[in-house]
Amino acid sequence: MLSEKELLNILDNKEKVNVEFKEAKRGVPKSIYETYYSFANTNGGMIILGVKEIKTGTAVNYEISGVENANSIISDFWNTINSGKVNRNILKDADVYSLTVQGLELVILHIPRALYNQKPIYIGSNPYAGTFKRNFEGDYRCTKESVNSMIRDSFQNAGDNEILEWLNIGDLDKNTIAVYRTRFRNNNEGHIYEELSDKDFLTKMGAYRFDKKRNIEGVTSAGVLMFGKTETFNEIYHNVNLDYRDETNLFGDMRWSDRIIENGLWEKNLYNFITKVYPKLISEFPVPFQMKNSLQRNDETKLHVATREALVNSVIHADFKEESCSILVIKKENFISYSNPGLLRIPIEQIYQGGVSVTRNITLQKLFRFIGFGESAGSGYDKILAPSRAEGFQVPELYENQDMRTTNLKLWIVKKEHGALSGALSGALSGALEKPNHMLNVKEQMVLNVIREFPNLNRKKIFEKTKIPLTSLDRYLDKLIALDLIQKKGSRRTVSYNAKSIDIQ
Q: Which of 25-34, 64-73, 232-241 has the lowest mean pLDDT?
């Protein structure tokens, strides 16, 4: 429950992507329900009833106007939510309450992010007509593709165990299977699966499946993704691109120094892609000489493990049924970026806290785990965070692109001292790691990313790239300066902004 002081601070900061003010003097505004669906289907948020918007030219301010009867408004809201107008109520009693501020009553609604198996939250009986999401401009109606994505995600095992009964073992690449089985034997010496036939082995691993109830059998989606021939892979997943780019050591007009993409020289499947990309990602990592025990060398650091885990995460959490689907891995001088189709199934703060995992593709996770790629459920992101916690690396940046329906991760591979990170930034990042809810909001992160990518931008150019209103942009710039993340150069009309002490060429 908010205090009066906290409410006034929120009011001073004005509306954000996760805060909505509404004037509701005598009753519940009709638009409140669209905002409820939007917050629930995106990242949650807060609706504050009893606040009036005041526009003066281009400036927007807010003042407390209050509501006449908070109890009546709360009662009417609950009656509507529970009447069937909304397909599912995700609120608890404690999420809706009244608050007296400056002698006036307000109504506060805390809307959580709906669980993956609760989405979509929508009005009426048709999810395609009544589902909304939140963006910087407010609430907007979801596309058919976005709704389909939510519906797919509502099923725990909807990712990769589908039987493709028209496919058989001959549609998979024998060489990929053979190489995988060799790695399996090396990683699981003496395992009882070693002596099985390919078909029996793939059945045990979930790449081939029998369904006695329906009397069907065939290669699974995971089987095609992991072991498919190029033509089989493209038949089933014609929308999926696998792309690795090395954007280090560039000169002239070079866009990349190395690239792995479908070219006819290798069978297009996830096993080949991952095992080709990983050695390139770690090729310049320093390798210590340590002994695990008296007989075995340890040539891996926490950064090696984090890089491998992040790479595998990009495929085991991907939604391969998205219409525009790319597994994109880009190696930069100071970081590696990973992008996969599909939004997170749980809130980002839960992921940072660790111990929680809702994998989209459980069979793929199993297949990679048996060959030493990927950790058991719940520990994966802990491994990705380990270098920042123990070895002096910057905290990885995990974020969603709601419009593109992608999940993105930036993993830093250069220690803080090499990037001359300031003490203030280090403290800010450490605090973000310990308390994820204190991280930059989406708009602030957007501004920071633009400034990092395009040095020496002035205020007008930042506005053109972000489309954030200038009054809000000024506030975000001031905050980034206060956190020592950016610096301002020049004066009056010559002012420009740069990321402070970070080189991300």
A: 25-34
